[in-house]
């Protein structure tokens, strides 16, 4: 149980950070723990592993990838040989998760034709991977990066792509509709995908999706399957975090009476999303529910 | 002709600025000049006034209000008593123009019901007048102001409204769709209105209009009639100015390869505009063409 | 002034009722009053007529047709010979108004092709006139009438059309979308038309218009020009009356805690209206503003 | 076989009524019958159970839940130990079905935020369960109930919710679009769900869905999985029943020539449905087909 | 009266053909006839001219331009000096009509930016003038011409533009949506414009307009004002001619049982038309009604 | 291996043609080959079969049905008894494929109600089967066939249906929107279905789908499951073939400078497709991905 507690602490203390890393740490802890359990009958083994899973899950209740990793591994408990199966499932998850962003890059790059202009928002590792892969396949591409107020993460994306040698143009968030006629495809990342195929992502994403929809430009989101939010399948709503007003403007006294609201994310409805690029393929947003059910086993008929 | 030349210089040197002031200066110059012309027959009078109009118009070729003012006054030349009529037209124009923003405030405020939340963009004198009038009529209102990158004119609007005592919330441009459910009406200003009812206004306006349209929130633009662009009636396109990239981001060497594009305006199509608030009433965008024709006499059947 | 006061009383006491009759009574009173005024110079005549107009207008402040009639007649005061002109305008208005519904019938019937199925809502004299005219021109038509809860005025329409020999089917208000595939055209009446081309009519009209729009079925409203609401051109909103809850359900004690809301009208946006059938022709809803301006002279440039 | 025949009779004679009860009765009959079959080899067992299923299915050919229950249980015949499996499947189905409405309530209530106003139509047990659950979780909610002509089932819903202490407002069916701006979410029940995600429900539902779609208000239907119509997967159309005209209006002779049409249901297309709340989770309407295939095994590749 | 009868015969016998030529011939006949009428008082003059107008109008009842020309000239009868005025109006009409296509070319060419790709349908003189003018202004343009089945008039357009040196690509009518992403603007001609802003033009136009609307590509129609259909303002519907099936396919016996339908025109709704290019300026489709009323005087308040 | 090589040659040389026949030939070759392999352990068997599959797949890299057939059969290699399973899978595939079009006919015909008018495009065996089945079930139907330029395959369809006795009308491709009001349902075939539910079919299909969508007419595509494009699930785009310009027009020298473009297919987005009729049932386009995954096993979690 040491490995479980240790991992629990590291996730809780944010020593382990990032959706992918958290998920893999949890899967690995379950694997190592399972390997140490000897001479127990199946029922006792299951009990111990379930407890371990419970603890890990409680380390960061709001991180989507954590319960997904745990659930994926725990699905092994239903098989005939639970210990073997749990270990195999954990290894499977780790490998798949490690390669996820790279696979997304490969799959997503196939949607980028030579000569395309791509628009992206904020600073998504997966979206950047798609663009870089397309570029390194020799395609002649251009990229529009939005500033992404209030924290200007678009500058990071612009810099990262520019450093690869890609032709990058930075624009303010308000200029998306102005430039959309020059854009061939929109590719963004994801903070979470819900059971009914909605995308929770950086504030501003939903209005870019609306603009792309109006202009009939394909809008794709790049999302590892561990971003698919399991609890939304039983109806849960994702609460949108509101962050510090000082991210928007630093106060200097005289403006004090002006309120500032600073939501970090917004929700893009599924009808504005043409496809979700996951490491296991391109899926329509309406398939999100099936991914949650099939790969993470969240639906129980007996529930 | 002194008054004409003097006014021409002042407009050219930007001593006289602002759409309204430029227009009134031109009208006044024509009036004073007409008053000085004595003992000429009608044809000679017309010739002189037409020359004066030509000169004034050339002072700032891109300002919409200038040719409108000149054309309005010159329409008097068609009447039986051209001198008298030119002077009367000039006076008419000046009074109407002076009261325009105030009248827009009164008319627009009628669209704001008690308890409404209003969203505005950038820093428009006419839109602010609408909001302030509604507030001072005793209506309990709230206002969302967008930052309006890259020059953050939204802060000026927020401050101006806050100073009146109005409840103001500042948001980033990307957050409009997030908050639109709390908004009852959008009111913005106008840089120009085209013959087919489109709105040329600060970059970002067209995406706010799209978002309001999607959410079925009324979108109104407040525009003095001298903002209606006369040449668009004969097909002319309005060119959108691109401004200095440094407005968006100050360069520090290492980012030099990132291009920056900074268009100042965008075009909102007429189908996303519910009404134009002018000083002569609320009109549908499809009526813009009629205003240009009727009040400024731009269409000639013999053309 | 006796005729003015007498007419004022009759309108106020609802002795004279109905949009058309009220309007004609006011026009007639102004005409008769003008005829009695002798030996006055134009300015004094104008003063007296303006006072009379003011009084008449105050008799029923919410009736749209009354200020329209008064304004129409008073426009005569601007002409060279005001007395003559006022009398002529009044006569013009009375004739035009008397024939309005009949002319609407003739114009609207041209939109009904042989074999058409028409859907109508509530109980509009003008809409019925359109349908009856088409039928008596020998066209083979069918009509769907909605019940029009809560007062079931649809039964009156069904009866009126059935008495003419027309094939009528009555349906509940909820069944409009079910039957819309069998419908070729929707024709309804109007309580008021606003400056930006919206239709204020019996509750339920706007959802029928939405359904027709979804199904690409033409939606027409039959409205005499005196139904065009003059004050909306200067921004005024039309308040929607909420009527007695007992129209919806008679109370019997135990249900007392259930609230009932009973708005009498709703507002159909102009984009769901294909054309307005007036006595002076078929106009697009965007032309409503022009009608108010041209025929009733509501816009003053000096305003 | 006695239990099968007895149950067949009870369903046929409507002694057993209601989608859920019929389905459970059939599953239970198959279970009890399976338990009585002894000493038969698998093939003979299968033959007997298939015959029993066939008979039960024929008891009410139009009830959606009946063939679903039978198919669910008969899927056990494919397993290695058919008898055991059939019994297990039957028990599974009964438990799941019994808890279905309660689970729908729990899942659906998660979509209701504190302060929400909900609109519902007709009188659906599942929709009421969602609303009541949200209310008893302590959420401050308001509800609009439509009258639901012609049988006014909306009064029953209003009464049921009012009796719980919920703030209920009753409106006529025509007033939905008028009030939609005050509504945060629409929740209705379902008579049937088709393979391509359409909703068959009380007449009027589809126009409420259209109105919600226009206003961007989420539209949810609460439907137990046994409401998913199996035959639609092989293309079958659901016929809409037309009921007695006297439900709409009682005749009194003179109106006799007016026809009355009274369809009981209409079909809401999937693109107006945001999610289906089932007892096994929230699914997009496009997932309906998968539910039919997976849980009821209706698709056979060899078909 | 000789000139009237002679012109009547020439129009009737199709010696004079083409919308513009017919209209000018009628205007000229009225002018010449008016000039020959001497020594009559105004009432007698009016009577004679009205009779002449009546006769001319009857020469080709379905040609839109003919009644427009007659009405335009006859409007002169309302002026103080009817003879002078009729002659002046006729001259005005002839000059304006002669220059109409050229003016449309100048106005329309302003909407074509350098580098644009234009799509056109069928073989419209006015649309070709717009494209040629833009090209001869030095703009680098490309053109897609549709085949325009069944008579392949697109080949004529392709040839005409190609002969000017323009880069032309011919495509089948079915390929419009495939190529629309490469198109910047659609410009077509007009057979008639209706009072509510619809376009009657060669079969296939309305689906091109729909495709342009879906892709947010501006759709413009080039139409001389004499193409605006006067009778539509009083509700008349334009009947669509069905032409000889052999235009579609030449029969060879064995296919005889296959029916062929061959409508020559279709109707494009106003909401898919961005602007109408007329010789007096660019107007929104909703302004069509105003053109008919103002320039041709078709609406009479007394009607 | 002889049977494999022989089949490879026949497919390559187009001796075996047609999506269905190619697929069945490949499955049969694998079956026969598997039957000849004796005395090998499972690993060696797998290796040989995989090689055979590889070779067959390379015979026609662009035919969708070939890799689907191979993949379907090769899925048997994962089972416990690979040889037996491969043979069984091959037989399954062949039977299912043989009956596919017939089953599609049966399923699709259920969507055709008595009295319906159907529109079809090009010459699809599956779509024709649907129409013929409906007709031979005794339904009174009418059919519109489009010409389908440039090769006029619509004539073949018209003839085929006419020969059955069906009432057929031929129209030009441009007339679809004109006649859509008379159409109850559109049924077309498919060249390929992509993972996100798009339809690749004969040029013109996507604009018919758009027109049907605008008019709210159901649009169905009839597609055997072997038409579902496997590689699209990992992001691949389908390249659209451009064919010989002479299919459009035969050249005669003087037109040589006119370019001709002749794409053979276009892509219909999933939101314009109401359902896909497959031999295993009616599915929503969003289910395409699931079919590819489930029946052909294209997604590997470890990928």
TrEMBL record, chains A, B, C, D, E, F:
EC number: 5.3.1.29
Biological process terms in GO annotation: L-methionine salvage from methylthioadenosine; pentose catabolic process
Residues given in the record as substrate binding sites: 17-20, 60, 201-202, 227
Protein biosynthesis listed as a keyword: yes
Gene3D superfamilies hit by this protein: translation initiation factor eif-2b, domain 1 (1.20.120.420), Translation initiation factor eif-2b, domain 2 (3.40.50.10470)
Additional free-text comment from the UniProt record: Reaction proceeds via a cis-phosphoenolate intermediate.
Its job: Catalyzes the isomerization of ribose 1,5-bisphosphate (R15P) to ribulose 1,5-bisphosphate (RuBP), the CO(2) acceptor and substrate for RubisCO. Functions in an archaeal AMP degradation pathway, together with AMP phosphorylase and RubisCO.
Matches recorded under PANTHER family: METHYLTHIORIBOSE-1-PHOSPHATE ISOMERASE, RIBOSE 1,5-BISPHOSPHATE ISOMERASE
Family statement drawn from the similarity comment of this UniProt entry: Belongs to the eIF-2B alpha/beta/delta subunits family. R15P isomerase subfamily.
UniProt-recorded name of the protein: Ribose 1,5-bisphosphate isomerase
Organism: Methanotorris igneus (strain DSM 5666 / JCM 11834 / Kol 5)
